[in-house]
Amino acid sequence: MLYDIKLVIDYTFQTPAAGARQILHAMPATLPGRQRLIAGSIEIDPQPAMRRDRDDFFGNRLTELAFNEPHNNIEITLKARVEVTGSTAARSASVELRELARSLEAETDLGARSPLHFLAASPYAGPDHAIAKWARAQVSDGQACAKIVADLGQSLHGEMRFDAEATTVDTPAAEAFAARHGVCQDFTHIMIIALRSLGIPAGYVSGYLRTLPPPGQERLEGADAMHAWVSAWCGPGVGWVEYDPTNATFAAGHHIVVAHGRDYADVAPVRGAIRTAGTQTSNQSVDVVPVGE
Amino acid sequence: MPDQAAIRNPDRPSLLAGYATVPNVPDELVREDGSIRSEWLSLISHLDRLSADERERAFARGAQYLRDAGVFVRHYGEDNNPRDWPLSPIPVIQPASEWQALGKALAERAELLEAVVADLYGENRLVSQGHLPASLVASNPEWLRPLIGVKPASGHFLHFLAFEIGRGPDGAWWVLGDRTQAPSGAGYALENRVASLRAFPGFYGGSDVERLVTFFRGFRDGLNAMRREEGSRVGILTPGPMNETYFEHAYIARYLGMMLLEGDDLVVDDGKLMVRTVSGPKPISVLWRRMDAAWSDPLELEANSRLGTPGLLGAVRSGEVTMINALGVGIIESRAFQAFMPRLSEVLHGRPLSIPNVATWWCGGEAERDYVRANAANMMIGSAISTRLPLEPEPGAVLRGDMSDIGLDLDTWLASEGRNLVGQELVSLSTTPTWEEGQLKPRPMRIRVFMARTREGWKLMPGGFARLASSDQDSSAVSLRSGGTVADVWIVSDKPVTEDTMLSHTDEVFVRSAPGLLPSRAADNLFWLGRYVERAEGQMRLTRAYMSRLPETPAGGTPLMTRLEAYLGKHGLDSAEALPPALERTLAAAVNAASQVRDRFSVDAWASLTDLERTVGKMRQTVVRGDDAASAMGVLLRKITGFSGLVHDNMYRFSGWRFLTIGRSLERAIAMADLLGSFAERSGPHGGFELCVEVGDSVMSHRRRYPITASRETVVDLLALDPLNPRSIAFHIDEIRDQVSLLPRADVNGQLSTLSRAVLRIQADLSVHTPQSLDQAKLTELGQAIGLLTNDLHAQFLE
């Protein structure tokens, strides 16, 4: 399936912001067997004084920007064409938790895709007693990891209410869980915390969703902005699976990956330090349109 | 060498009469047989010769020095409750031979740490070959992923280290903790040494105690040698005055003659790190950071950090700056690494550890877990990645198997959390004498020692920062957790020591070095310090003028007093209060500005400013309106003039001083224009002219210059137009013009800067006025024009 993606992020500063410096994680990735970036461009208005692309530790492509002159407004426009070929549901039977733990203990690889990075607390996904207790209640003995991932995601989807207004970027996952509401970022962080508490390595995937569903299907939540879902490691045989708890589905042909990280902090679409005295507002719009459908 | 027989002489100095060491615990001062160790002999006999009074006075001098210098020797690092640590007047004394051996062993350990950290940020062979558990690295928040694969520009990760060491029951030194991140304490060691000098002035000079200066000079020269290009600078990066060790940062910066910088002082431009100075951005290529890595760059590390410099990691990655130490090396402070150091030494260096560290077991392995379970009674069990010493366990750690805070039994806890836990043996530490209730008393101690990479290799500071426990009840290290004192550490040489200085040894002809750069933030603080101090002085004079008139004012008031009340009110001064709260606020603002540039002040000036603030605090309790308040203002005026005198008498006449002076002149000129505008009205209330002369502190000048009573003409002439009166507007406009013309960038491409032009305009305007033409409206206008200079100054230098 081919998609055309357009993302526009617009920042307005009350007082001109000088010396802004940002890191963007917005370009869809090329993942062999899964998706392929055919073409992509990022335009920045006004022109930054410095712009450089490089890969981060996890192998995600990022764009670094620096502005010298003060600006009232920064507009970032991304356009990309992506081919999505694969899905991420487990293709083979995965191991149960005790065996998973044994595999992890034997693991000595610290490369970008090593599950070891995704077990410990991270800035947005630190341990939480209530989430861990809830997670424990969802699993029974001897269950396969991939099944646990799907069950947890399904339960979370059932218990949480999607509410675009209830939380902000900085609402702790524990708080969103306690109130059982939030957006894709909250769903994802809660599920990451739950999986890690069980000993399943879990990370954060940022990406795009097809905006309008194919005829006869329901529109997916979170398609109006950049989306997020969970990746979980289910043992050396199965490897990583990706689950979207906001929509209670394994990430399939409608999910386009931008970046993998431990949590939002690693892959935020725009990460940046802006020196400004006043407030800033931002708008984000996303269009993901199938080509030739 | 002292006579051995004398050492064993049974008639011990009377000082040692009550000195009872702890059984089975080594003591630094006396041997097991009760004889004094030879390196202590001369100090003990010196103390013994002093009368009880002389001794107490000597000790008091040392303590007084630290108080005067504003040294708050705080419990550093491991504890979030800062408290002051009093100085124990008796230094810890070690023989040079022992220190040399220690230095050799610690240099080997430093090289081992370097090799480990280079691997963790490089090929990660130690993990892939199974010498280190992967989870220990992957779950460590100090393993900074954005820096993996980045080689340090200097070729080394580690340049300045601290080790916490203690002497175990067998008499050998043990490493209790490695400090690689941003070790503090070296400045305190220096300050404690100065305190020692004060306490033992006659003794120290003639003693063979090794001096600290050579160590610091070697380290500084090493830093200078790492600069990327001539003209690029070395700076010290501090989290700022809110940090509990800020005092030390300022002290070290002053001592080493380096710029003290905050994250905000730095910008990254085109991959290069620059410091924002009043002369524009200037390159900086070596940063000695006193800030934890996580806070250093909000763009790639802790996003909420307001202390860091966005883009710093980019500059590090492109090899444009050497960080002392490299960002990310904090990982090896984690106590779990201690469990693996013996093995890593074998793997990397092919030999056992040169100096043992605290016996540590990582509970992720089954055999280790079993051992810890069996020996929990003599252990601290706690977080594997914590950087705390075993003697200062974090909340949630278990001491001697006491599980009451955990809510689990030991077996279950170890089984479920094992990978995240370590057990560390609780070693008991040697004792050293302190002074309590007129007697020497043995106290358990540990020492923080410092190592620097110099051009001649690793060097151990011949001294350190000792911490003594508050009691000898529990001679195990744990008792160091609360209370206690700090002490200087003396290394006594068996050869005569020579004096040394911070000046570089060079045979070249003496060249006067260019004055240092002034960071914009420091300039801003100096400017405002000048303004606040002057404002406080003005507020004192106004309050005094009001309070001294109060007793003779009839019940219904007078027109002058009514106007004065309104005028005070306009300046936020509440005339109903004997000591207006606004004055306290102004002083607090001055102290705050001064505290951010402490590296640029003499100790005396700082002490006089804080003394002023304290005095106001005390006066608030007792002073009443009227004459009492007026005389209190007199006291404060004398004190504040003392501060100004100290600053203006000894501050080097360069950019920093110029900003301070401009601030003062600007404030004074604005206040004077305002005062004259309000009280020098021809038809104003009776007594207004005299008030101007009094508040303008020009009573004597007026009497000398004009043999008549004050009139509008004499007052405006003297206080606005007379360029020779240091209280007049004209005098201060001249001063501002002089200073501005000497600041960097006074002209831009041959043209006067906006600021220079604005000052010149005011000066020209003022010079053609007569007392008659400078009417009330013009005075107001003048005050406003002078006030606007602040904006131009800001735009030119401080943004």
TrEMBL record, chain A:
Using the record's annotation, list all stretches that form the Transglutaminase-like domain.
176-247
According to its UniProt entry, the protein's GO biological process terms are:
proteolysis
Hydrolase in keyword set:
yes
**InterPro entries in alphabetical order:** Bac_transglu_N (IPR013589), Papain-like_cys_pep_sf (IPR038765), Transglutaminase-like (IPR002931)
Name one molecular function that GO assigns to this entry.
peptidase activity
Database matches in Pfam families = Bact_transglu_N, Transglut_core
> Which keywords appear in this protein's UniProt record, sorted alphabetically?
Hydrolase, Protease
Supply the name of the protein.
Transglutaminase-like putative cysteine protease
Which source organism? Answer: Hoeflea halophila
Automatic annotation (TrEMBL), chain B:
Where in the numbering of this chain does the DUF403 domain appear?
A: 518-797
- Which positions fall inside the Circularly permuted ATP-grasp type domain? 91-469
May I ask which residue range the UniProt record assigns to the signal sequence? none
Q: Name one Pfam family in it.
A: CP_ATPgrasp_2
Q: Determine the domain of life of the protein's source.
A: Bacteria
For this protein, the record's PANTHER family field holds: BLR2978 PROTEIN, BLR5612 PROTEIN
Identification of the protein by name: Uncharacterized circularly permuted ATP-grasp superfamily protein
* Source organism of the structure: Hoeflea halophila
Q: What taxonomic ancestry is recorded?
A: Bacteria, Pseudomonadati, Pseudomonadota, Alphaproteobacteria, Hyphomicrobiales
